[in-house]
């Protein structure tokens, strides 16, 4: 009986550890997917963009902000814009995209007055 009890405990412990690893990962992926959809809806419904104007929309898990979405627009592929949800969807930042880095564009070379999709907000 003791061997069966030890095996049962071991199997239960392993399953618990696996669940503790999988559940947070699944929740983060789900929340990123929801945030991506909210950002797309914001850009289309509130800002007036067409879906085909968005080259890419990618959720990101980081330190601060914990969840954000990076958007690259078709007509400005060298810049990516970061969006977060704080009471509502807001553009938080911009940076050079991978395509911009390949073209040797530097963040310091960017003039915010010439950015096509830059929104300045006071948080």
TrEMBL record:
<protein>
    <recommendedName>
        <fullName>DUF3139 domain-containing protein</fullName>
    </recommendedName>
</protein>
<keyword id="KW-0812">Transmembrane</keyword>
<keyword id="KW-0472">Membrane</keyword>
<keyword id="KW-1133">Transmembrane helix</keyword>
<feature type="transmembrane region" description="Helical">
    <location>
        <begin position="9"/>
        <end position="28"/>
    </location>
</feature>
């Amino acid at each position: 009986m003791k061997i069966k009890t030890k095996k049962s405990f071991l199997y239960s412990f392993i399953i618990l550890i696996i669940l503790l690893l999988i559940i947070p990962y699944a929740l983060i992926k789900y929340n990123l997917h929801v945030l991506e959809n909210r950002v797309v809806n914001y850009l289309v419904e509130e800002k007036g963009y067409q879906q085909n104007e968005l080259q890419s929309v990618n959720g990101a898990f980081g330190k601060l902000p914990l969840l954000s979405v990076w958007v690259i627009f078709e007509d400005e592929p060298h810049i990516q814009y970061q969006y977060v949800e704080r009471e509502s969807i807001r553009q938080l930042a911009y940076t050079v995209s991978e395509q911009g880095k390949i073209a040797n564009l530097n963040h310091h070379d960017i003039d915010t007055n010439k950015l096509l999709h830059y929104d300045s907000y006071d948080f």
